[in-house]
Amino acid sequence: MPETLTLYTASVCPYAQRVELALSEAKAPFTRFEVDLQNKPEWYAPKVNPASKVPAIAYGGPQVPPDQPSPESTKIAESLVLLEFVADLYPDSGLLPKDPVLRAKARFFIDAVSNKFNPAFFKFVFRGEGTLDEFVAAIKEIQALLPAEGYVIGPFSIADLALIPFWGRGLVAFENDLGGFAVGEGPKYLEAIKKNPELTRFLKYVDDVTSRPSFKATFVPEVIKARFKERFRSGKA
Ligand SMILES: N[C@@H](CCC(=O)N[C@@H](CS)C(=O)NCC(=O)O)C(=O)O
């Protein structure tokens, strides 16, 4: 039986949403603490995560208020580590199946998200660098790893949680024209991606994942939109 678990998170953060998704899929009881990333509590780095980032989990130890973390709980950070941790705590969730081949496939996909998709995503959507064609090429690399239908390894797994928070933030950026790209380009880029017949499989996949209750319960587009407005358009009308 898992012990007490506190998740330090922020609705704006895609890495943190990965872990919220895993906890939601596992139906895990936990205490949620929203960290204000613009004004972090002074106890957060020394008592929870020396890197001063979300997500982080305090696991075990006595029941304490989340803003008074116990030295007796184990503190764990890094979203991909935490995805595996939640899957290990809740093996019946199937988030990381027992079969070594399926486990390797899930990890291979996650590696592609970290090393192929995300660098292209940050470059194009947040820094406004490179071309739409380059971003589409990165989407195609991910698409090539998907089976003809369903989820990455067949059953829903941690692999499906690695990419989707970033895609969700891409949608908010494009739909609301709030990214590193030039004003007016966001909706056009989204239209071009959605109409691209070579991306049909990817678009169906992200639609499948974002339709799940776990995504709806953990995705807060208005918070993300407000943050993107400050970050990308605060100097503009
Ligand atoms: N590699 C980390 C990245 C986590 C991260 O960069 N989190 C950001 C928010 S999205 C953060 O907490 N930044 C610290 C800050 O904003 O001060 C992970 O996968 O968990």
Largest sheet: 4 strands, mixed
Q: Write the CATH fold name of the largest domain.
A: Glutathione S-transferase Yfyf (Class Pi), Chain A, domain 2
Structurally, the number of domains stands at 2
Topology, number of strands: 4
Describe the structure.
The chain is of the alpha+beta class. The protein has 2 domains: about 5-90, 3-Layer(aba) Sandwich (Glutaredoxin); about 100-235, Glutathione S-transferase Yfyf (Class Pi), Chain A, domain 2 (Up-down Bundle), CATH 1.20.1050. It contains 10 helices and 4 strands, in the order E-H-E-H-E-E-H-H-H-H-H-H-H-H. It has helices at about 15-25, 45, 80-90, 100-125, 130-145, 160-175, 185-195, 200-210, 215-220, 220-235; strands at about 5-10, 30-35, 55-60, 75. The protein has a 4-stranded mixed sheet, with helices on one face. Strand 1 (about 5-10), helix 1 (about 15-25) and strand 2 (about 30-35) form a beta-alpha-beta unit. Helix 1 (about 15-25) runs parallel beside helix 3 (about 80-90) and helix 4 (about 100-125) runs antiparallel to helix 5. The chain is globular. Glutathione binds near residues 37, 52, 54, 79 and 80.
Name a few traits of the molecule.
Glutathione S-transferase Yfyf (Class Pi), Chain A, domain 2, 4-stranded mixed sheet, Glutaredoxin, single chain, 7% strand, 52% helix, binds glutathione
